[in-house]
């Protein structure tokens, strides 16, 4: 297995850096459809072939559908086999019948211009409503009928996944926040998932851009300078983790590791998480048509962090607050 790809399931190989499409949902700058779809072509040509979207990410699924049409026209239908498309099913809580679940899955299939969705990653807002088990039951049947290849999860905690496993449900992945700062998955989630053959797909790994040279040696940004939803969200995470001064110490440490390997801070942050045994892939936001980091991101694949690098990083993170005790298990920040 090359470092660049991962066998998520017997019939599904993904790129280990996934293109995250939450940024087309708004709050990350005005995205133009035409330039977004053109840019998706460039990602594909650079072998970044795995797309992560959701039914609630604005036009993300439609962009994928349009991209597939253009790609087939330009390179032939067989080229479409090189794309992996993961979306999310994010329903409102309440009764979950087969027809409700199928309605949303059919809509995603139509928008994405696919016959089968590679992975449907299911998210549920309210654990007190156990209809999520009904939804999973219907998703499993829809999978068996061939409309879905695999079922994944998004932001479920370990306790709920344990209930699913006990009920005989088969999931290939859970999408969670996981970064050098936020290592909550290591407490319960990663050990449980490794035991049961469930892989982690991680987001927030670059803290919305904070884990980069752009913030090294810089004063703490004011609220008005946090110009995307991601920066606002991850600044709160930095505050809970240990604050700006400790974060600067971390950036300086990551910078020294990055310079040693002739890469960037973001590469070190990405590879640190890719090296975790439960992790199949890291999702990096693609601000299509606004900012582009393809060639930079690719450098993470050839980076090998050694024992000394990891010890340096741990020497800083060990001074931080315990996010598991303050926030809770994976996904608790949304509930």
How would you describe this protein?
Strand 5, helix 3 and strand 6 form a beta-alpha-beta unit. This protein has one domain: NADP-dependent oxidoreductase domain (TIM Barrel, Alpha-Beta Barrel). The protein is built from 12 helices and 10 strands. By secondary structure, the protein is of the alpha/beta class. Strands 3-4-5-6-7-8-9-10 form an 8-stranded parallel barrel, surrounded by 4 helices. Helix 1 packs across helix 2, helix 8 crosses helix 9 and helix 8 runs antiparallel to helix 11.
Task: Give the key terms.
335 residues; alpha/beta; TIM Barrel; 10 strands
Poorly predicted regions: none
DSSP E strands, number: 10
CATH architectural type: Alpha-Beta Barrel
* CATH topological fold name: TIM Barrel
Count of runs of 4 or more consecutive helical residues: 12
Give, in spatial order, the strands making up the sheet with the most strands: 3-4-5-6-7-8-9-10
3D shape: globular
CATH homologous superfamily annotation: NADP-dependent oxidoreductase domain
Largest sheet: 8 strands, parallel, barrel
Quickly give the structural class: alpha/beta
Give the averaged pLDDT, no decimals.
94
**What is the string of SSEs from the N terminus onward?**
EEEHEHEHEHEHEHEHHHEHHH
CATH class: Alpha Beta
Query: How much strand content do the residues show?
Result: 15-25%
| Total separate domains | 1
Portion in helices: 40-55%
What is the gist of this entry?
By secondary structure, the chain is of the alpha/beta class. Helices cover 40% and strands 16% of the residues. It is globular, with a radius of gyration of 19 Å.
């Amino acid at each position: 297995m090359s470092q660049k790809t991962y066998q998520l399931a017997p019939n599904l190989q993904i790129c280990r850096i996934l293109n995250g499409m939450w940024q087309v949902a708004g709050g990350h700058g005005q995205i133009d459809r035409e330039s977004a779809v053109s840019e998706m072509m460039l990602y594909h040509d650079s072998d970044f072939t795995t797309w992560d979207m959701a039914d609630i990410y604005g036009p993300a699924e439609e962009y994928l559908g349009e991209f597939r049409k253009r790609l087939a026209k330009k390179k032939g239908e067989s080229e479409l086999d090189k794309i992996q498309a993961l979306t999310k099913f994010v329903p409102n809580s309440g009764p979950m019948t087969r027809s409700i679940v199928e309605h949303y899955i059919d809509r995603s299939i139509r928008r994405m211009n696919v016959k089968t969705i590679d992975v449907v990653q299911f998210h549920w807002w309210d654990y007190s409503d156990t209809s999520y088990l009904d939804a999973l039951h219907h998703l499993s049947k829809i999978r068996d009928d061939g409309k879905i290849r695999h079922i994944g999860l998004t932001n479920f905690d370990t306790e709920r996944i344990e209930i699913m496993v006990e009920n005989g449900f088969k999931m290939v992945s859970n999408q969670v926040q996981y970064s050098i700062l936020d290592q909550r998955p290591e407490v319960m989630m990663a050990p449980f998932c490794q035991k049961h053959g469930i892989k982690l797909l991680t987001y927030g790994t670059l803290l919305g851009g904070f884990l980069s040279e752009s913030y090294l040696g810089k004063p703490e940004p004011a609220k008005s300078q946090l110009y995307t939803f991601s920066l606002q969200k991850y600044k709160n995470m930095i505050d809970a983790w240990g604050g700006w001064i400790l974060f600067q110490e971390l950036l300086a440490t990551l910078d020294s590791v990055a310079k040693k390997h002739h890469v960037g801070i973001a590469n070190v942050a990405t590879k640190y998480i890719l090296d975790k045994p439960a992790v199949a892939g890291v999702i990096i936001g693609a601000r299509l048509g606004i900012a582009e980091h393809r060639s930079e991101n690719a450098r993470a694949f050839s980076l090998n962090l050694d024992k000394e690098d990891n010890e340096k990083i741990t020497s800083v993170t060990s001074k931080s607050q315990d996010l598991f005790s303050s926030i809770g298990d994976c996904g608790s920040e949304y509930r």
